[in-house]
Amino acid sequence: MKRTRVRFAPSPTGPLHIGGVRTALYNYLFAKKQEGDFILRIEDTDSQRFVPGAEDYIIEVFSWLGLSFDEGPHVGGKYAPYRQSERKEIYKQYVEQLLKAGKAYIAFDTPAQLEAKRTEVANFQYDASTRETMTNSLTLPEADVQQRIASGEQYVVRIKIEPNQTIVVNDLIRGQVTVNSSVLDDKVLYKSADELPTYHLANIVDDHLMEITHVIRGEEWLPSAPLHVTLYNYFGWTDTMPQFAHLPLLLKPEGNGKLSKRDGDRLGFPVFPLQWADPVTGEISSGYREKGYLPEAMLNFLSLLGWNPGNDQEILSLEDAINLFSLEKCSKSGAKFDYKKGEWFNHQYIQQKSNEELAEMFLNRHCGLDPQPRNDKDKLVKVVGLVKDRITYLSDLWEQASFFFIAPTTYDEKTVQKRWKPESPEQLTELIGILQGIDDFSAQNTEQVVMQWITSKEYHLGNIMNAFRLALVGESKGPHLFDITEIIGKEETVARLERAIKILNIK
Ligand code: GLU
Fold it and tell me: How close is the Cα of 318 to the center of ligand 1, in Å?
């Protein structure tokens, strides 16, 4: 059997969209399941849309996710180069081949002429029904064509689509798709202006030369598939034509229409894996990595957007996903981008990390913060253990944990009104005395002593505990109170109580 070879073939036109990451992941899962090759090919033949930095961004995404390519511009390989702009010369001979065989022709129509035609003819399409009326090598005498080229006139090469043929695309997800060739236009395959092929030609030639066996890509490319099948035919490569699989679209969380960056902005979630700074406008788009999303969670979440393992299993390691993956279990209908579910996955994966690992990640992210967590790593590890069940993103950690390191200087207004009672200053002053008498300041012992005191005095438990928490945290959040006192210690607990009594008494 032929070795399975798949490629992820992005065009470096900006930051890679989350849907592109899903496409790459499915290629990866499929390749690894078949013990085949996963290849990165950069499709940068559209010089107009090229964006600097986009290729590096793509490579960084996959190194963050831990999906490594077997071949690609950054790792090399037997079929190099993997950047289409470096394969210019290769494509030229294939353009020649089609021209010679009469499967393509040269066209000189200027953009202005094409525009005029479009205004003149409703729904104008450059095809068998109109090509005879245009300026091309089918309508001009050969000598004229040669003379125009010799004089440096720019031209394009168009595919010659024969009308009224049935084109069949066999798709592993969608089944058989049949199209009448008359709906296709004579697409441009090559432009003399930059001596570069267009996407369609370069894509087919490279899939052929790189011995790609399966083309797994987004549904938005399905309309191009009949043209691609035609090209395989024209080149005489039908026997080695890869199998197609067009993945379902990622839909808005509400399910009505395609997911876009605007949905992310509107609902507050990134649509890019990594943060991206637009090289022209400087505009920053948020990324999952910067938000504190774990790569494992990202992979698990994306793996289930358009595929299911055939059971209810939701938490899947990359290993599991590879073992269970099959294109037959990919759905035809669009997958709602349920970002809340994505948050749930991240929360789950955070719980699976050890406190040490999370503390380390936290320090790597927040190098500019209060130096205390860095200097007291043991304390940080304990704190992480106490608050991790409350966080969705790593970026939530500091918000949940900062009070362990920094004493509150202000107190949440609403909590004060609700929780600070007229008797609080006096009771907390008495509490200070009790705490000072405790030698073993462990959570368990402190709790026991304080509870005994409250019971013996017949104080209102809730009132004391709420005012106590307010003094320690500055608001009503946080884990078990005596876990906090144990970690910050006796001296700091007393100092925070004293400060609260002083500040809140003035009110
Ligand atoms: N360059 C195309 C893209 O940007 C590749 C589509 C394909 O996989 O054929 O997605």
Answer: 24
Separation of alpha carbons 493 and 246, rounded Å:
61
From CA 68, how far away is CA 45, in angstroms rounded? 24
- Give the span between the Cα atoms of 463 and 61, in whole angstroms: 51
Show Cβ contacts of residue 467 under 8 Å, excluding neighbours closer than 6 positions: 419, 420, 421, 424, 427, 428, 500
Residue of 261, 291, 336, 421 marked catalytic: 261
pLDDT for 32-56, tens place per residue? 999 999 999 999 999 889 999 999 9
187 counts as catalytic: no
User: Does residue 221's CB lie within 6 angstroms of at least one atom of ligand 1?
Assistant: yes
Nearest residue to 399 (alpha-carbon basis) of 428, 451, 347, 362: 362
Tabulate helix, strand, coil % of the chain (nearest 5).
Answer: 50, 10, 35
Tokens of 104: 């393509």
Distance CA 72, CA 81 (A): 8
What is the C-alpha separation between 346 and 297, in angstroms, rounded? 5
Q: Nearest CA to 292 among 214, 207, 375, 363? A: 363
Residue owning tokens 């999906």: 67
Cα(312)–Cα(19) distance, rounded to whole angstroms?
23
CB of 459 closer than 8 Å to CB of 371: no
Q: What are the E-state strand segments in 172-290?
A: 175-180, 188-191, 196-197, 214-218, 243-247, 250-251, 276-277, 284-285
Confirm or reject: Cβ of 459 under 6 Å from ligand 1: no
Q: Coil, strand, or helix at residue 474?
A: coil
pLDDT digits (tens, 9 = 90+) for 143-173: 999 999 999 999 999 999 999 999 999 999 9
Q: Is 45 in the pocket of ligand 1 (CB under 6 A)?
A: no
Is the four-CA dihedral 239, 241, 246, 247 of positive or negative sign?
positive
Pairing of strands 37-40, 104-107: unpaired
